[in-house]
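We both want to read discrete structure tokens more fluently, so let's practise on a single case. Once you have written the record down, we can walk along the chain together.
***
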Amino acid sequence: MAMNRHLRAICVVLLLAGACLAFQRRGRLPFLDDDDLPEPYPTDAAEKTEWVFARLRYNSYRQGAGMWGVRGSWSTDYPKAERHFAQGIRRLSRVHVRSVEEVVDLDTDKIFDYPWIYGVEVGHWDLTDSQAAKLREYLNRGGFLMVDDFHGTIEWEIFMRSMSRVFPDRPVVDIPNKDAIFHMLFDLEDRIQIPGIVMFYTGNTYEQDGVKEKWGGIYDEKGRIVVAMCHNMDLGDAWEHADMPQYPERYTSMAYRIGLNYIIYSMTH
């Protein structure tokens, strides 16, 4: 009996060790799903280009909570969303875009190298005073921030706790249909709400109490949009899952067009 117990214990240890080695070889942790597997690194990653997808890294409100607690909310859909989006930009425009993304944060001056940055899940961000000041300086110097994938009243309030310290004197307004940002490469007066893949589980195109999409913006004193908000939407999922047959093409197409318009706007205004 004692021998059998020892043999069983040895088998369990060997199985666990094998599983750990398998996960290490695949470069992942066992609780992450297949979407978190590293994307193949493009052969032209070092190419010098005119535009790079810059993703904002930030501290999360109540760091450690939620499904992205390990990596941080900033990394949702990373890097598959930007790799797919970069290929779409190449096909749909003449913007010379790098095939790989760049991660930037607000604790260095690296952010000033990129005229367009993308912040995802900003309903979970928590900027310090110095980070809010750095973001304000970046935007006042001509930078552009696109925020996406935050939903409902609570996440809006958390987002605004930090954004109101970035621009305490500038209101958030609904971007009118006639604004140039919706008429750069594509005319986008008839926009639709872009859902995340959560719709496959809920049957809804919205999350929490965010039933209606909001195309919000903050303008500078010259009338230029410096922050564009896709609230109650998830363009990142539409980019990431562009190769998923189950994800409706109309949402992916709209997400690509919106992103491209915002990029070209940031480069020309």
Q: What stands out?
A: Residues 49-268 form a domain with the Rossmann fold fold (CATH 3.40.50.12140). The two ends are 78 Å apart (CA to CA). The first helix runs from residue 2 to 26. The mean pLDDT is 87.
